[in-house]
């Protein structure tokens, strides 16, 4: 169950960050409201996950997955251009999350 709740938290954060970009500095309030609600959902569900999962592991997964997903949204939705080092950095983040989940005994499986 904590993994499902963490997925909700990650989704909330990704939606909120995407809406934050679309809000154009909160000049488009409909996106600003989506952003506020999304971050509320993200932090609420992350707080529930932290009852059963170590904070460092949960946050690493939440942040790493969020960074990777928001980067993809930035590329495909907002036309963001990345160089080779940016892709390498994102790959290292995703690899780190994979190592935590697949190899670490600290993670709550």
Q: Can you walk me through this structure?
A:
It is a single chain. It contains four helices and no strands. It has 109 residues and is an all-alpha fold. Helix 1 runs antiparallel to helix 2, helix 1 (2-22) runs parallel beside helix 3 (55-78) and helix 3 (55-78) runs antiparallel to helix 4. The longest helix is centred in the middle third of the chain and has 24 residues, at 55-78. 24% of the residues are buried.
Question: What descriptors fit this protein?
Answer:
single chain; 109 residues; mainly alpha; 78% helix
Present the secondary structure layout.
Layout: H1 2-22, H2 29-49, H3 55-78, H4 84-102
Spell the H/E element sequence.
HHHH
Count helical runs: 4
Rg calc:
15 Å
DSSP E strands, number: 0
Report the principal-axis shape.
flat
Biggest sheet details: none
Low-confidence stretches: none
N→C terminal distance = 10 Å
Portion of residues within helices = over 70%
Oligomeric state of this protein: single chain
Look at the structure and give the mean pLDDT: 93
Strand content: under 5%
Give the structural class. mainly alpha
Compact summary:
It contains four helices and no strands.
